[in-house]
Amino acid sequence: MKTELPLIEVDPEIMSGAPVIRGTRVPVEALFGNLADGLSLDDSSIVFRPCAAKTRWRFSLRRERRRPLRLLEVLFDECVPRGLRGLLPGHVIKTTPEMGWRQVRNSALLARAELAFDAFLTSDKNLGYQQNLVERRIAIVVLPTNIWRLIRSNASTVAAALDRVQPGEFRVLSF
Predict the structure, then answer these.
(1) DSSP assignment string, 113-165
(2) I need a labelling partner for 30 at 20 to 30 A (CA). Which of 20, 45, 63, 154 fits?
(3) Per the confidence metrics, is the pTM higher than 0.90?
(4) What is the C-alpha to C-alpha distance for residues 75 and 72, in angstroms, rounded to an integer?
(5) DSSP class of 94
(6) What is the dihedral of CA 38, 40, 43, 48, to 10 degrees?
């Protein structure tokens, strides 16, 4: 069942049917969760959209800069906060909007991603249940949330997963 609202849409083919901001793969829950954590609407747009992140969002990262085990080309699903990009040095990262794939459905998105990327990072927890992943060559890493403060505080877990994930592996993180 597809639901139509002015700013929100629900479609089983987008983020497993979770309510999302229309025309995106950004769950409404993530937007409100980040606002509840104290981000302003401007900050929240920076977390989920790449456009202004470099000029308006700065934070210090106090952790050892390490070299990844191997360079990966990683596709961020639209529901993944863009701030994570800066916490994953050494990988080539693109987002679904940067690729022009903003409204591409799950199965088509995976097929396209598989041709150009080594790994797909998402927070769509139902992806493994809704898609046949048996023949996939792309590694898929699933975040347990898309709440920025939780992801930011567990960035080393995400980095370690990307460093070790194998082609065709489906890995669900927990933190």
Answers:
(1) HHHH-SEEEE--TTHHHHS--TT--SEEEE-S---HHHHHHTHHHHHHHHHH-
(2) 63
(3) no
(4) 10
(5) E
(6) 90
